[in-house]
């Protein structure tokens, strides 16, 4: 992720990357490399990009803020909501600094267009949302830090499903009711979920259903938004891996019969997006926040807290889930 | 620039409304022949109306009634000589008068599907682009489709529409448009099926741009020379009615023309729905020609296959009708 951010900074301009920190320093780079995180401050940066495992994020972010650095941190923002609150407390002591989290999906062209059309009122009131985001768990699944709850805080839901939850919150603001089923089906000896299903409702009655999966053998991103006047769906999402397909937005306005009832399968417009501008837009917003004092719209610490709280509520809503984890611990 | 694709279930061939009847074609051809024989009509030769390439460098498209060329640079199909606009408009008015009125035994709202498609197109573009389109001026589509204004009244939402029907006045033929644009300053103009029919399409777009505030939108629907129907059938295409198709732009050619006129193209699409059904109709009912691959394909294709092909054409900007959204 650090390299992706570095490339985006180079494309944007206005950033002078003075140092990089990684677990090893034997890759090609045209900048100084260190392995000790505290050494980066020898170069007196104005900004720190935090691209580390979830467990380390709060420490790195709080330390950077306390040293007077603007911070861009990858998601998830730590392992739980307490991690976010800890970062928020430090952020509050440094109101002149920018803290932004990389909830990158809000910046995808298809998502922005969907938001624009809903906000314009063209589609009418939002009724429900359906989101499926999944991948095949991948090589070294059991050994990956992402599937070690002490490092990550959870499994596929907190790692990937959190993006869909963040989008749900963008469209529906807050969910008052949360139900869930959290499961392990394939990696039964790994103490994190490989599937999470959630059904949520906000106070206005907007319902959202999520399926976050590590057993989605055919990678998939689908977000459907059904409103009174029609629907919007986003299928596929442009990603660094390129495995979720082209980003395609379909939008349709209902046609009504003579009695005012919608006719099935209305004509839809399909817009295909082939270039991923999300990284550049995300960096541009961060730069504008620092250089021009513009507000951060996406990836605020409050949004981070909201989505981490929702993740926790989904885990907690399945009464059987803690028992499954406990069984793993006993067996181990 | 976005390239939306329009997807829906193809209508049955029996419902293909835009296929021109023999009577319609013959009436148009008779009118064109009358103009060709009329000494009072002045004709002028022209290069490609889209990219300006010389006629000498273009290929012959048709010699029936009058010469049509296919531009070898941008693929636009065009009449090599055209009459002045005032004569064209006068002839169109006479032909419109000859059209039989909508009768009770015809479907009550025969073009409703098309009308809703236009209105939805404008609504979605408005939402996507962030433009507020409170006032829209329709230029001449109300003459081609008399039930259009009524449909707009019934179906249009939160938008003031005005209609400027076809009228034969002024030397350029666009004086009425200039005056109306200056008087009303609409947020958008709809040119639906008009670019095909005018003698100087660039002149029409110049009038629009010169008399609209910057940032206004122009919605244009016109025939597309890149469509599979024209590529396979050429001048045999049932959609090719010379008097109605003085200009059949390609996507590339039209894009170049509007760019040179100072417009920004916000959207390009080829939402034509009928290439596949027209071609199947041609190969199964009209003509027993043996075109490699295609004749066999269309004779054996079922409705699902035709729909798949049509969507592929739309996704490839290769269907027979195109839409542009331009910003002044």
UniProtKB/TrEMBL annotation, chain B:
Top-level taxon in the UniProt lineage: Bacteria
Alphabetized InterPro entries for the sequence: SAM-dependent_MTases_sf
Name of the protein: Methyltransferase domain-containing protein
